[in-house]
Amino acid sequence: MDFQQQQNINIETGPVTPQMNHGGHEMFDVHEVLAGSINTMNTYTMLSQHVQDPELRDILDRQKAFMKQEYNTTLECFQTGQDPAVPTKSYKMKQGNDFTYGMKPGGQPKKPMESTAEINDETIALSMLNAVKSVAPIKTSAAMEATNPVVRRVLADSLPNCIEMAYEISLYQNKKGYYQVPQLAQQDMQQLQNGYAQASINSQMPGNSTH
Question: Which of 2, 38, 89, 143 has the CB geometry, 3.0–4.6 Å to 155, for a possible disulfide?
Answer without folding.
Answer: 143
